[in-house]
Design brief:
Shape: globular
Enzyme class: transferase
Bound molecules: adenosine-5'-triphosphate, (4-amino-2-methylpyrimidin-5-yl)methyl dihydrogen phosphate
Keywords: ATP-binding, Kinase, Nucleotide-binding, Thiamine biosynthesis, Transferase
InterPro entries: HMP/HMP-P_kinase_dom, PM/HMP-P_kinase-1, Ribokinase-like
CATH superfamily: Ribokinase
CATH architecture: 3-Layer(aba) Sandwich
Helix content: 25-40%
Strand content: 15-25%
Number of helices: 8
Distance between the termini: 22 Å
Order of helices and strands: EHEEHEHEHEHHEEEHH
Radius of gyration: 17 Å
GO molecular function, one term: ATP binding
CATH class: Alpha Beta
Number of domains: 1
Strand order of the largest sheet: 3-2-1-4-5-6-7-8-9
Protein name: Hydroxymethylpyrimidine/phosphomethylpyrimidine kinase
Structural class: alpha/beta
Amino acid sequence: MKKILTIAGSDCSGGAGIQADIKTITTHKMYAMSAITALTAQNTTGVYDVSEISPEFVSKQLDCIFEDIFPDAIKIGMVSSKEIIEVISNKLKEYKCKNIVVDPVMFSTSGHELMSKDAMNTLETKLLPVADIITPNIFEAESICGFNIKNKEDMIKAAKEISNSLKCHILIKGGHLSDSADDLLFYEKKPIWFNGKRIDNPNTHGTGCTLSSAIACNLGKGLSMEKSIYNSKKYITSALKSGLDIGKGSGPLNHCV
Ligand SMILES: Nc1ncnc2c1ncn2[C@@H]1O[C@H](COP(=O)(O)OP(=O)(O)OP(=O)(O)O)[C@@H](O)[C@H]1O
Ligand SMILES: Cc1ncc(COP(=O)(O)O)c(N)n1
């Protein structure tokens, strides 16, 4: 059985973070492991509190995992401080990890800051360079490239700009552009679009977490990057299409489809 590790924050309401990742990995029929970086008190209406795990404890979790059950792929989500980012980056290098997917989570859908502003630079210099693929949404891509993204041409410009300093695959997700749900993969100067029809579903809590952990599962299976993204886009589309509607705000996805 393939083993997939998620390094992320906990969402007690089960829609995003570690919980969304474990559901995704399990429905891919793989063995899920988790190193928790923060506890959040949140639900479909918002994030109400965050309690960071100490960098020392994150480090111990990673040693326990890597010394015993080595993962075939790793997804990294919410990493709130520069100290936690440094620990993760060092451990990934020390253990020579492969198939690393970094979802640079900065804000929740509800607008709560999930990464401190002073951690941004450390994310860009220490964590993104060890990734095989990064999966920013429009706002995260704007923050990394430094200009606004309003349409698909801007997405290409942003990917080109980011690729000047990062050699990995760059997947800019188009879920927050209004007319479509087209995601752009940019690698070695080549753009590839993964087109998606916008689904009329306000319940999108955890779409980014789910997509990135699905990509990790597919890479862990040994599939190519393009095929991994293609399969993951199919997974997220059917989870959105099934139209689960629970909670009072932007609800979670249905992983049981
Ligand atoms: N309404 C929608 N219809 C179809 N696909 C969507 C929709 N919203 C998001 N997606 C898809 O879901 C995936 C995640 O994209 P999105 O841009 O929402 O990421 P995100 O903002 O990181 O997610 P999150 O809401 O969890 O923070 C992408 O493949 C995107 O195209
Ligand atoms: C622990 C954790 N990780 C990630 C997200 C982002 O997900 P979303 O943008 O859907 O709120 C979140 N809300 N909580």
